[in-house]
């Protein structure tokens, strides 16, 4: 129990940890609002306000986060040129997303002209979608390479029964695969949410689709950021 509490404290001390918690509040309140909208209008309105305030607080908390894109570009200095190119595209899209998200937040709280909100929302969502596509592609390529490497290691393990080194490498590959699967799930979910802003449509804009996508993204991020 104490170990879980300690991990929760560490998790909530991170900016991403707080973001995933508030994102959970945001999309749970969206689903509750949709569910009780016709039967309990007053309650639905309260959850609608909770959703809106959660969304705005997340935007405020992400101030300056577009600069983390530079860190993302420096993480894998030994990456191949193809992966560096994918990383540039992915992080550039994410930086556009977070940068214009500042103006969206300011326009929604009334600091800037409210008329800018729609335009800033489109640009931010477009950059977000652009970045997520390349993040997804990168993760899928790495997972494919991991599967191939794991097969070779398993064949080596069969030849050398006590190959501890092979077992450890297989364990790391599988652990990395789980984390990348969580990243792909989160990015696909966020891509659906962004698509709802770029090109409104019955599927992406439905409260159930948005709510489930938001929770998938939040909980996948929660899993990835939870202390080991």
From TrEMBL:
Major location (coarse): membrane
Q: Where in the cell is it found?
A: Peroxisome membrane
Entry GO terms, CC: peroxisomal membrane
InterPro entries with a match to the protein in the record: PEX11
Name a Pfam family for this protein.
PEX11
Alphabetized GO MF terms:
identical protein binding
- Determine if Coiled coil is one of this entry's keywords: yes
Coiled-coil spans in chain: 146-176
* Protein name as it appears in the record: Peroxisomal membrane protein 11B
Q: Which terms are listed as keywords in the entry? A: Coiled coil, Membrane, Peroxisome, Peroxisome biogenesis, Transmembrane, Transmembrane helix
How does this polypeptide assemble, per the annotation? Homooligomer. Interacts with ARC5 and FIS1B on peroxisomes.
Q: Reply yes or no: does the keyword Ion transport apply.
A: no
- Could you tell me the membrane topology recorded for this protein? Multi-pass membrane protein
What does the sequence similarity comment in the record state about its family? Belongs to the peroxin-11 family.
Species the sequence originates in: Gossypium tomentosum
Q: Where does the chain cross the membrane?
A: 82-100, 120-142
Q: What does this protein do?
A: Involved in peroxisomal proliferation. Promotes peroxisomal duplication, aggregation or elongation without fission.
Per the record, the GO terms for biological process are: peroxisome fission; regulation of peroxisome size
